Structure formats: structure tokens, C-alpha cells
Amino acid sequence: MNNIVYKININKAANRLDQFEQKQKQRRRFLLGLFFVILIGVAGVSAFYTMKTQEKIKGYQAELANIEAEIERLSASSQFLSPEDIFALAELANTRMTWTEKFKVLGEILPKDISITEIYYDYQIRTLKIKGISRVNPNMKDLDLVVSIVNVIKGNDNFSKDFVDIKFSSSTRLKHRGQDIIEFEIDCLVG
User: Fold this and answer.
1) Are strands 179-190 and 127-135 parallel, antiparallel or unpaired?
2) Last residue in a domain, options 42, 69, 96
3) 35 and 108 housed in the same domain
4) How many domains does the structure of the chain reveal?
5) For the whole model, what pTM was predicted?
6) Rounded-to-10 torsion of CA 23, 26, 28, 32
7) Alpha-carbon torsion, ordered 80, 85, 86, 89, to 10 deg
8) Cβ of 159: how many Cβ atoms within 10 Å?
9) What is the rounded end-to-end Cα distance, in angstroms, of the chain?
């Protein structure tokens, strides 16, 4: 006789419950492991960027130390320009007299019958010397003609503002090619 044995698992529901719990544990372990892997990854990336930032800071500190050393070296040398020096130079540049502007104004204010023959600066007496010629005016004396030229020059503030005094120096009457002319010299004293 053949005995047929049948096995009946009464705890089948319990096995399924155990399997479910084991899968839950596996999931928890997997999620917990994934969380720690992500946490370690974030910590690694943060550490990497922190190191890079520290390297940049050290580089900037070294550059700052070099700049400060260069400033110290330059301030000890005679070539150093302090802010006061720069402001003094700027004021000098703004208030200095430019001869080209003066000569342009002089050409504009002088009457058309006057010609400038020579302009030079005498450094010893700090004077701009203006030499010129003019036709003789029959209605005026020679000296009055030169004084009127001096008055025209003195009367223009754009020209005369940088000079202490503008005065008549000399004049001579000449005959050139049959025409009477006056040769004159005017001194403009620089302050």
C-alpha cells in the first residue's frame, strides 16, 4: 500500500507575514544604506568645496600680503606718490598757465594792423616778452599807440589773469620800404 502523505501547511499565512516583514527589513536596510551613502556623498562634496575655498582664501591672503609689502616698499622709496601729492598735482594741472591758450587769445585780441614778430620767455626775470610792429597812426602819438596795445592786452582777463603786471618796455619808429612803422616791446611779468 502506498501511503500518500499530504502535507498541509497551516502556517502559510504566517510565512507570508514573515516574508513581508523580511522584505520590509530589506527595504529599510536599503533605504538606510542609501541615506548614509547620500549623506557621505554630500559630506564629501562639502569637504571638497571647503578645501577649494580655503585654497582660494590662502591665495588671496598671499596676494594681499604681496600688495601690502609692495605698498610698504613704495612708500619707503622716493618715487611714492601720496594722496596729497596726487591732489597737489591735480590742482597744479587745473590752475597752471598754458602758453598755447595765452597765444591764441593774444592773436584774437590784438588789432589786425599789429604783427607779433617775436615772443620769448626770460627765465631770469620770469617775464614773457612780446615784440611786434604796427603801422603809424597819423591821429595818435607813437607812445599812445603802444599804450593802447598794452591796455587791450591788460583788458582781456583770459590773457592777463596769470600775469602780475603787463607794461610797456620800449618802442622805436622805423622806416621800412618807404612806410613808417613802430616796433614795440611789452613785458608780461609772471607771478
Assistant:
1) antiparallel
2) 96
3) no
4) 2
5) 0.50
6) -160
7) -130
8) 22
9) 147
